[in-house]
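Colleagues,

For the teaching module next term, I've prepared a clean inverse folding example: a structure given as tokens, and then the sequence designed for it. I'd like students to try predicting residues themselves before seeing the answer, so please don't circulate the second half yet.
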């Protein structure tokens, strides 16, 4: 399991526990609405008024690879503080080698949750507020204050400083400040006076509009970033935050049981040994629980696949009993659009099916069912996108991976669809007697878009 994003923050105001829990549950409701949850997205919640630990765990399938992405949010009431911990993890679901993606920038709604918690806790770092927005230095006093803060020995978070004077476009903006909430202080220096005051404090040109400077805590040398986008900068800061996360060892929820009486003459070394054994058991139990959750998710996926297979079998049996069932290609296309959830049906596909007046709908539907099954495997990561056409050739009779050069150059409009702001060609196709099914594979999202269902389109054989 790899942690790809995370941060922790604390407050001495323990009364903020319930508002923080409310913010987390609101995030859960927005991102995973109860009416849309399935067994393939396990959600575990530990939440009790007399339990010092609140914990939410969400596990969801990564559509781009054979892995599951976990989100774990923990609130712990300690003796002197209330701790909040947020982590995103990646864990493989198969015994296979996957690309090691160590860092992920948080999704917009997750970054918003982080910003809400940071704003709620009002945590202090070297006497400066940890804020989810940009800190603006606009005059000489701000520049001196910022320089003193950069040198504060008790500071624990890095500071990102961008001088915006004369810059056509700012790199450090509100969106970036949201993404780095709880991870770094984000500062814009917006005046020459502030920049001069800051650099005079050091007696050297530490900040400039020509680069972005990160002042790391603990006396580590400042680092300059010259690139014109924030991606590498943000990933390095998130990586540093992940590296600073402590191992969470959580006690199980308290149970109402009779407490064993410990004799007053127990030896101290025996107590230490018992504590060590208990810690090992907790760690082992956490690992077993994680594996069980992953197994439950995969079992739910298999159950959903089985249910879909039963539905498809029932449809085919109905075809045999009723000779008119799904006879028309238009009926087959409409039924497929309703029931085959792994395919995207373009409006052109439905329109062409309605205009075809063809009567081999069952054959069209059976091919769409097989294409839907392949699309499901593609989205789960069982099939590499680069070899999807090979799998189609193996499982679909009369499949062609492309169209002729003449068809592409002379009749491109016949094969074109508007897709996400672009015109793309639906070249792969399945021959179903007089009918043709053309589809487009969006490799950026692994969506299979059914673009055309109807009569043979114009190609090199067309007069």
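(Answer key — instructors only)
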């Amino acid at each position: 399991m790899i942690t790809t994003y995370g941060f922790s923050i604390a407050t001495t105001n323990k009364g903020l526990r319930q508002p923080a829990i409310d913010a987390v549950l609101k995030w859960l409701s927005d991102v995973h609405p109860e009416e849309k949850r399935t067994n393939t997205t396990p959600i575990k919640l530990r939440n009790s008024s007399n339990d010092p630990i609140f914990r939410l765990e969400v596990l969801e399938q990564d559509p781009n690879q054979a892995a599951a992405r976990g989100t774990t949010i923990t609130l712990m009431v300690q003796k002197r503080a209330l701790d909040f911990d947020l982590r995103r993890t990646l864990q493989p679901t198969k015994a296979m080698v996957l690309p090691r993606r160590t860092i992920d920038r948080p999704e917009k709604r997750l970054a918003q949750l982080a910003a809400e918690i940071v704003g709620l806790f009002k945590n202090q770092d070297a006497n400066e507020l940890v804020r989810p927005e940009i800190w603006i230095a606009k005059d000489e006093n701000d520049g001196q204050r910022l320089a003193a803060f950069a040198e504060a020995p008790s500071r624990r978070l890095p500071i990102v400083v961008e001088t915006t004077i004369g810059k056509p476009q700012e790199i450090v903006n509100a969106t970036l400040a949201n993404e780095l909430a709880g991870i770094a202080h984000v500062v814009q220096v917006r005046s020459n006076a502030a920049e001069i005051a800051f650099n005079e404090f050091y007696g050297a040109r530490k900040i400039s509009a020509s680069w972005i400077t990160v002042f790391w805590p603990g006396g580590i040398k400042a680092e300059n970033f010259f690139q014109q986008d924030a991606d590498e900068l943000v990933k390095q800061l998130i990586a540093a935050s992940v590296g600073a996360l402590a191992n969470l060892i959580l006690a199980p929820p308290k149970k109402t049981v009779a407490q064993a009486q410990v004799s007053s003459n127990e030896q101290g070394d025996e107590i230490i040994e018992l504590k060590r054994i208990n810690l090992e058991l907790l760690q082992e139990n956490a690992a077993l629980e994680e594996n069980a959750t992953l197994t439950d998710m995969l079992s739910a996926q298999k159950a959903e696949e089985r249910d879909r297979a039963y539905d498809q079998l029932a449809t085919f049996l109905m075809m045999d009993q009723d000779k008119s069932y799904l006879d028309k290609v238009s009926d087959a296309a409409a039924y497929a659009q309703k029931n085959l959830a792994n395919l995207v049906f373009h409006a052109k596909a439905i329109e062409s099916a309605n205009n075809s007046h063809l009567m081999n709908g069952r054959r069209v539907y059976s091919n769409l069912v097989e294409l839907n099954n392949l699309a499901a495997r593609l989205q789960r990561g069982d099939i590499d996108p680069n070899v999807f056409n090979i799998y189609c050739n193996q499982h679909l009779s009369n499949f062609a991976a492309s169209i002729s050069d003449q068809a592409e150059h002379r009749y491109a409009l016949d094969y074109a669809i508007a897709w996400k702001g672009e015109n793309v060609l639906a070249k792969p196709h399945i021959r179903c007697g007089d009918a043709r099914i053309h589809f487009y594979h969006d490799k950026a999202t692994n969506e299979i878009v059914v673009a055309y269902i109807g009569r043979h389109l114009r190609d090199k054989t067309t007069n």
